[in-house]
Amino acid sequence: MSPGIPRVLGKKRVKTGKKLQGLCPYPGVPAPPWAGAPWGPLSPRPPPPRPIAPPPGPLVPVPLSPPPPPCPPGRVGDGLRGPLPYPSPARPHVTSAPAPPPFPRPPPFPPRSHWLPSAKPRPLLPRALRGPISGRRGGRGRARPSSGGRRWREKVGTGLPDPPPAPPGVATGRDGPRVGLPGGRSEPGEVPLPALGDSGGDIGPAMLLSLCTALLAPTRALLALQRLVARLAVAAAVAAAGVAYGLWGLGVLLRRGPRGALRWRVRAEPPPGLADGTYGEHGRLRLKSSGLQLHYVARGPPTAPLMLLLHGFPQNWFCWRHQLLEFSTRYRVVALDLRGCGASEKPPGKESYRPEVLLEDIREVIEVLGTPEGHTGATAGHPKCILVGHDWGGVLAWELAAGHPDLVEKLVIIDASHRAVMARFSAWHPSQLLRSSYMFLFQLPLLPELLLSMADFELVKTFLTGPWTGIQNPARRLTEPELDAYLYGLSQPGGLTPPINYYRNIFGDAPVPRERPPCPVLLLWGARDAFLDARLAPCLRRRMAPAAHLHLVPDAGHWLPEDQPDTVNRLLWDFLRGTE
Question: Has 353 been annotated as catalytic?
Fold first, then answer.
């Protein structure tokens, strides 16, 4: 087939011919005679071409243009925009084309300190949050650039030399010395530099704070919702307790009349055994931190190890009279009146009875009256004691042993709960809410004082001597003088408000120590406790150390040191001697 002549094969349709147009590739050579004739499938084949004679005269080579200069650095060129490397057959008179102007050289990448915005630098994620270095998913590849500026410099290049070294005392960055005074300080009117990081892979303190705030936002929302629900539940329980005890007070008023219901007797003289030396030596201790004076009764050798006894509500040191007589042969037993109770001073205001303030009082008492150096359990500068607490005293003893383990050698808890365990247990056991209804009543102002003092403290007498709430052992029922030992302090003007203020701070925002007491622990619990559910004792046992001991005393109520004194003393001796 002749060159330049197309042929259609396998076509049934007759195609009209067309003329060949164009120039001969060699100048000066005439075109063949059949070059302009029409053709088709039925037309006769053209004759074979005649041999082409060489043109007359010698062939003169056309000089080629010099090679184009290389593309400037940083420019992507295709090689066709500069001078042509050979003459064009279509335009033999043109040997080269004028070169277009070169691309403008890109400006050097500015240093970090010059392209910071005027208000605040844009925070970038740290290197740790950018993920693994990988170019493709699931495989190895080239490193992914961390920022747009670094990618631009790697691909294009700046053509700049390395930055000069920074003078001494000037903060340096990836692009050279920073603008500013030595130490990173800036001149007046300049944009201050970020404190941390000078590249896209670093993070500043503002970004770190924002990231932490964003991550903690759901947790804070849940905690705020939990606090709101807890406050609403407490408010509902306070209202219900106020209505229930208000109806009880209305019944007392209707039964006894206004004169009998609204009268109470102020005990002018303390009963026998309360202020004399029947059970021990009375003393006062002035605290260094607050300046208050606390009353205590001590019995035993002054150089013996200290056993500190803490009472609950509405009692005072008198509830430990049986233990004062029992353990004074080997220990220096001290029964303390907590602040606001008994003969101790009573500071005004609810804030004076916060748990952390009460714990500080007990800590100072141990440091002053603690076991002297040279005895078992005492260390240099850290006196220790055997701490025993009942009711509110047990709550404080538990938290003191957890927060100050260097002050407690052994811990004994009697019918008292940890505040965190108590709150969790009450949320899942409504029966405990009914047993603790008086706590919600004490959140109200003035009404608890009025109800407790009605009919000469009838409600307090019911707590201590009632058939369900009082002492269950018939042989240990409180006598009238023993009952007056508790009512003597409560009947004085303003004597009810300080003990009630203990309960008015239990629903505050004060942190509750959640550590386990590292010292040996003994937990005694009355099986017939009317104020604390017996199922609460195993929950408390799981919060103590594995070596702790739990004893559930049968046929005993809440006032265990007075209800079963012989059993309590025997269990205490076994625990102190190590035979438990």
Answer: no
Cα–Cα distance, 14 to 570 (Å, whole number): 127
Candidates 473, 501, 503, 499; CA nearest to 486 is: 499
85 belongs to a structural domain: no
pTM, to two decimals: 0.65
Bin 176: left if φ > 0, else alpha if -120 < ψ < 50, else beta. Answer: left
Catalytic residue among 175, 337, 391, 529: 391
Q: Which domain holds residue 504?
A: 281-577
221-230 tens-digit pLDDT: 998 898 898 8
Q: Which of 503, 529, 533, 563 is catalytic?
A: 503
Query: Looking at the domain assignment, is residue 406 inside a domain?
Result: yes
- Could you report the per-residue pLDDT of 163-183, keeping only the tens digit for each? 556 555 544 544 444 444 444
Q: Distance between CA atoms of 438 and 435, rounded to whole angstroms?
A: 8
Report for 30-39, 102-111, 399-408: range of highest mean pLDDT: 399-408
- Helix/strand/coil (H, E, C) string of 155-195? HCCCCCCCCCCCCCCCCEECCEECCCCCCCCCCCCCCCCCC
Span 517-551, pLDDT tens digits? 889 999 999 999 999 999 999 888 888 888 889 99
Among the listed residues 311, 390, 418, 558, the single catalytic one is: 558
Alpha-carbon span 30 to 86, nearest angstrom: 24
C-alpha distances in angstroms, 43 versus 18, 20, 21, 35, 521?
A: 13, 16, 19, 14, 121
- Is-catalytic flag, 503? yes
Q: Alpha helices of 262-354 — where are they, by DSSP H?
A: 321-327
Q: Can you give the pLDDT at residue 515?
A: 78
Q: Across-strand partners of 379?
A: 382
What DSSP designation does 77 have?
-
CATH number of the domain bearing residue 515: 3.40.50.1820
Count of structural domains within the chain: 1
Predicted confidence band of residue 199 (pLDDT cuts 50, 70, 90): very low
